[in-house]
Structures are given as C-alpha cells and as structure tokens.
Amino acid sequence: MTKPRRIVRTTVVGPDGHSTLVEFDLAESPLAWLHSRRGKDGADLFGDDAFAAGERLRRDFTLGALEARTTMNWSSFASGSERRRGAGGTDFSDGVMAARARVSAAVQAVGPELGGILVDVCCFLKGLPEVERERGWPARSGKLLLAAALGALARHYGYGTPSGAARRALRHWGAPDYRPKP
C-alpha cells in the first residue's frame, strides 16, 4: 500500500532576499512531516527558516549525487564532455562537485555532533524513531537535537537574518566610538 501524495507548495525566501516557490511531498520527507506538526504547547517544533535550511541541504545532497547507488550508472559511457572522475570511474560535473562542497561546508559548520542527525533525517530521509534507535538515544530526544541542528544550519545559510547580518555583526572588540589611529 502506497502513501497518498500530499504536495505542499510554499515560498522560501533565501538569504539574498529572493523568494522561490518550492514544492515537496509530505509523505516523502520526515523533515516535512515534522514541520507540519506542533508540539504539546501548540508551537512549531522548528521554524520555517530551519525547515528551509534542511530542504536546502537535502537539495544539495541530491544534486551532489551523494545517495547510495544500487544500480549501474551508464551515463559515464555516453558522455563525451570533460568531467571529474570519482571513485569507481564515475564522472562528475562542476555542478555536482559544487553541491558536494556545499554539503560538506554545511555539515562542518554545524559540527560533527549535530551533522549526523541532519544527514540522517534531511538527506537519507530516516525517521526520528529510527535515528534514535540506531544511535541508542532516549525516545523523543531526537526532536531536540534535530531542532538544534536545523537552527545551526539555518544560521550557516544566513536564514532568519536580513542579508546575513548575523555573520557580519562582530567586526572588532572596540567600543562603539572606537576608531583606529592613522
């Protein structure tokens, strides 16, 4: 029995201020399912910025062809263009390499403690009960860790701040009227 498709359309505003219409299937993504739920207090488990950051990580993960392959990739035999070679003789375009670099930078930015749950839930589409069971965590502790990881990821991408102002906020340790002497 297949799950019914529930396509949701939403507008996501990026750190550059441009908005994009994004479609996703709630039945496919555990992150989308969690985003559609409320906590006991009636508040969102995590905000729209955190959800957008998780979906951006998932998009880059997919574009970077980082999911495990179970079949033969015949596209390398048909391409005649110059591409980078990966493990097993697979060709990679510049777009794929850029997506892989973005995923790597994002996971490094949130740290190894939180990067694992992001990759499991956002990229490999594992549910929180499965992640908690695999890692030996107490039940329902994954929600807290996922919310913290998504918050760190949203800050990395610059979501929730006008034009990434949080990244530029600290420039020096001087007083507000401090000016260097020539």
Q: Which key features would you list for this structure?
A:
single chain, 182 residues, mainly alpha, two-stranded antiparallel sheet, 4 strands, 46% helix, 10% strand
Share in helix: 40-55%
Overall geometric form: globular
Characterize the main sheet. 2 strands, antiparallel
Please give the alpha-carbon distance between the first and last residues. 74 Å
Explain what the structure shows.
Strand 1 and strand 2 form a beta hairpin. Helix content is 46%, strand content 10%. The protein starts with 6 loop residues before the first strand and ends in a 14-residue tail after the last helix. The strands form two sheets. The chain has a two-stranded antiparallel sheet with strand order 1-2. It is built from eight helices and four strands. It has a domain of 107 residues. The longest helix is centred in the middle third of the chain and has 17 residues. It is mostly helical and 182 residues long. The chain is globular. Helix 2 crosses helix 4.
